Amino acid sequence: MSAFSFNTTYQPTGDQQKDAIAQIGIMQNRAVQANLAYQSCRDSGALFKVLHQVNNELHDLLDSLENHTPLVRKNADELIALLLLFYIGRLVSPELT
Question: Considering the entire predicted model, what is its pTM?
């Protein structure tokens, strides 16, 4: 049994901002899952692939929104910081790759 529980699906509410925040949360979960998988098998190629996909999906999501509320922007900024942490962490720690 996993020590982590991840929300991988959501039911759209019809509220564009709430749906965007839910999607960003799912993207964060995917990034964390990819990093945990990397720690298990040290497959940096798979980690970078997921981080790249999540980054592209985030930008597509933000581009599709009519406007960004501060809460959406905050969640997006936190996801970007997380992606950078995982990405840079692998680049500056070559002994881990």
Answer: 0.79
